[in-house]
Amino acid sequence: MESATHPHPRSWSSTRLRDRLRAVPLPRPELAALLTLAAVLYLWGLSNNGWANDYYAAAVRSMAGSWHDFLYGSFDAKGLMTVDKPPLALWVEALSAKLYGFNSLAILVPQALMGVASVGLLYDLTRRRWGRVAGTVAGLALALTPVVVAISRHNNPDALLVLCSVGALWCFVRALEGGATKWLVAAAVCVGLGFEAKMGAALMVVPGMALAWLWVAPRGRVVAMRQLAIAGAALLAVALAWPVLVWLTPAASRPWISGTSDNSIWSLIWEYNGFGRLEGQTGGPASLGTSGTFGGATGPLRLLNEALGGQAGWLLGAALAGGLGIAALSRLRRTDARTGWIIAVGGAFATTAVAFSFAGGIFHPYYTSLLAPFAAALVGAIVGQVLRDGQASRIVGAVAIGLGAVVQLMVIENSASDLDWLVVPLVVVSVAAAFALLFGHNRLRQAALVCAVAILLVGPAIWSVGTLGHPTSGTFPAGGPESASTTVGSAGGMFGGEDLSSVLEYTESHGGGTIAVDSQSGAASSIIEDGAEVAGIGGFSGKESSVSAEWLEERVESGAIVWIYTSGSAAGFGGTGAPGGGSSSGGSGGDTRTGSESAIDTVVKSCTEVDSSEYESGGESTAGGTLYQCSDS
Questions:
Q1: Where are the beta strands (DSSP E) in 406-514?
Q2: Where along the chain do its domains lie?
């Protein structure tokens, strides 16, 4: 009776172990191949890129040395000024540097792994609706987008932005399958994390997802609205966690917010990193007159121009035709499983493409990396749709192939003249594939689809591999051959760091202390190489931030700043101040911003000017400016 009431546990057997192991889902071989390809492209020869963007690398060194600087995203070790972006991406890099030491691979490897993860997630969010072949094409298209290769080998925050955006769509597709609130909230959390990486840019996926959820409403529209409210609250909670922390911290206890003139985190969100990017802002292409660096003239064909086309424009034609075709085939019926997917992904594609085409503010070619996953997913989706057979699907596929070829011809003409030899094969294969898709038998149609996808990926694949042939460094990473980096203005000297070696040697021999200089870019190399106590108080180029004279005086009185150095020549687009104070004429291209020049001019009147012969090297000042001692160290 006792044994019947309390049966003995079954013995563990090798048979049961084998059964359980067989039940464990194994990675699909195509997914493993995609991840391997992405890892090779993003990790191969990664050390050749050095510190990539010195601006962020310097901030990582400062943040890795102090939890206070880490928390607030301080550019300098004294915690005087933040970088001009939220710190989530830099937190990842700084934690890696804490674990593995401050070196370029500790900074860049996490970025590459983010790129690999994005490829995997994009494969799955496409596969879940369109099948394994479609997922493979989508993942391959993303992995082989030149600008994605570039940003995955770089330390700008865009790799994390792309990962968060793809992650949001992946969670959203899961939510559509069963109407689960938890997956919708997870999607919102991903958007919030993207906001903590690059602020407003992360919101590009929101309109499409919100519209798709309200339209499809898996559990009814009343429930859908309630679910969206919950997800919106989650998004706000995550997105505003760091900004609210900064807002609640007394200004005297945190760094100045770079990119602002009022030290307000809300100004950074709404203006410098917000509507200013869309509506136009001082320091953008209109005032600086630089074409490739800022994406060229705005307009409907901007994404295919000399600066942007070779980066992420290759598949835009196929993506546009495919997205519109699928929307037409589904008729956007609520009961059609394709509808929610195409509204969400197509909405992200449309929102991003329109915003990037007409953004009148600061806009750099590598920003197009955010458009790449949406375009890749649409290309994969149209492949999946064609494989479902049906005359209407084949017509849409043929149109997508045709428009895809036309767009690639424009990209080659505008920005990839090194691929002129591809024009004839592209035309011949595309025409033949479209014809076979419309009129061939089943096996011929499948072969035609494979050939069409292959020919459309040749150009971006060559440019992606070409990215590995030269360092992807500087402020503006670019995919493709080295000539492409020159075209889009890979900051090789545009924001070059100042040589402060002689100034630092003098200050260190006279008690040390932090030196305030015009620009953060000018201070970056000294921080990276020597961990020098140098703070750029004019922002990135010396023009973005305008600290008040009162703020600067308080930092001098507290001993946080001991020295002030005013550069004799503009750093990049124009540092602030000529020797001994005075205007530097606002820099180039009509940019009239003066950064923190006014505050510096006011404060140095109470400082002691150091005779330049005291810090000259070889009879000539290596720095070329004026040094002031403002307090005792």
A1: none
A2: 49-467, 501-629
